[in-house]
Amino acid sequence: MSCTNEGNTAASAATATPPPPHEVEECRGVLRVYSDASIWRSSEPSFSVPVEDDGSVLWKDVVFDHTHNLQLRLYKPAKPSSSKLPVFYYIHGGGFCIGSRAWPNCQNYCFKLASQLQAVIVAPDYRLAPENRLPAAIEDGYASVKWLQAQATAEEPDAWLADVADFSRVFISGDSAGGNMAHHLAVWLGGGSAGLAPVRVRGYVYLAPFFGGTVRTEFEAHGPKEAFLNIDLIDRFWRLSIPLGETTDHPIVNPFGPKSPNLENMDLGPILVIVGGCDLLRDRALDYANKLKKWGKKIEYVEFDGQQHGFFTIDPNSHPSQQLMLLINKFIAENSL
C-alpha cells in the first residue's frame, strides 16, 4: 500500500502545474520584474503631465546608435538669439531602470532649457536595467557624445544641428542617474575633452546626482521617509542596475569606493552640482563637492533649501527652478570664454 501511495504521489508531483510567476520588484508602476526573470514595462510614463509645446522650440529625433536602436532628441529655439548656440546635454534620470527622452516631464524641461539657455539641447536615451545592467548606460552616454563629434567632423552633417550649434561650447548635464553618468563622462573625457576635437566640453552640470555606497549617509538613514526618492526605491534601483554580484561600492555607484579611480589627480573640468535640501542623496552630493574642492577642482555646490529630488522637472515653473536656470546660464557664460 505504501509503495502504491508513493507512486501516486510521485506521479502527481510530476504532472503538477508550477505556480505562476510572482512580482519581485516594482518601480513607479512602469517596471515590474517577476520571479521567472520576465520583465514588464509600461508604454506610458510614470508622470501624467501634458506636453507644453507652444512652437517656440523646434525638436526632432535622431538615431545615434543603430546597433542598439538608441535615439536622442534635439531641441533648438525657433528664433535663436545668435547664429551659433552652445550645446547642452540633458541626460534623463530614473535610477538607470526607467525614464525616456520622450517622457513628457523630460520633454517639457528640455523646452525650458532650449528657450531659457538659448542653447541646442541634446537629450539621449540609453539602455535600461535590469535588461541591460551597468555599465551599459554609461557606454551609451559616451556614444551619444561621440555622435556629436561625428556631426562636427562630417562632410555633410545634419544641417538642422550644424547650422546653429557651436561645437566648441558643449556642456554635459544629467538628472539623477544622468548626473551620475555626467560624472563618469567627465572622468572618461578629461578636462578639455581632447579626444573629442573639434567638440570641446566646457563643463558639467550634475542635477541631483545619483551616487551610492554600502554605508548609509546620515540623511539616507534618518531623512524623510516620505521623500519623493525614498530609501527603498534607491535600494531597488541599485539592486536592479549594478552588475550581478557587485555591491553599491562599485565604482559606477560610489565615486570614492575602494575600487574607484583616484579623482585627486584627474582634470575633470568645471562642475556645477545641484541638489535639493530634502533629497536623501544630498549628503553624497555635498561630500563629492567638498572632496573635489579640497583637491583643487573647479567645482560649485548649490543646495536648494526645502526642495526634493528632481524638483526642477516636477515643477519647472517654481521659483527654485527659475533660480536654477539662472545658475546654469551663469555657469555656461563663465565657462564659454
Return residue spans where pLDDT drops below 50 for at least 5 consecutive residues: none
Give the strand content: 15-25%
| Total beta-strand segments | 11
Structural class, by secondary structure, is alpha/beta
Q: How would you describe the shape?
A: globular
Largest sheet: 8 strands, mixed
Read across the widest sheet, the strand sequence of neighbours is 4-5-7-6-8-9-10-11
Helix content, binned percent: 25-40%
List keywords for this structure.
about 325 residues, alpha/beta, 3-stranded antiparallel sheet, 11 strands, about 20% strand
Quick recap:
By secondary structure, the protein is α/β, with parallel strands linked by helices.
Architecture overview:
Belongs to the 'GDXG' lipolytic enzyme family. GO terms for molecular function: hydrolase activity. The protein contains ten helices and eleven strands. It has helices at 2-15, 104-117, 136-153, 159-162, 177-189, 218-222, 231-241, 282-294, 311-314, 319-334, and strands spanning 23-27, 31-34, 39-41, 57-65, 70-77, 85-91, 120-124, 165-175, 201-207, 271-276, 299-304. The termini are far apart. The chain has 337 residues and is α/β, with parallel strands linked by helices. The radius of gyration is 22 Å and the shape is globular. An eight-stranded mixed sheet has the order 4-5-7-6-8-9-10-11, sandwiched between helices. Helix 5 (177-189) links the parallel strand 8 (165-175) and strand 9 (201-207). The model has no long low-confidence stretch (mean pLDDT 94).
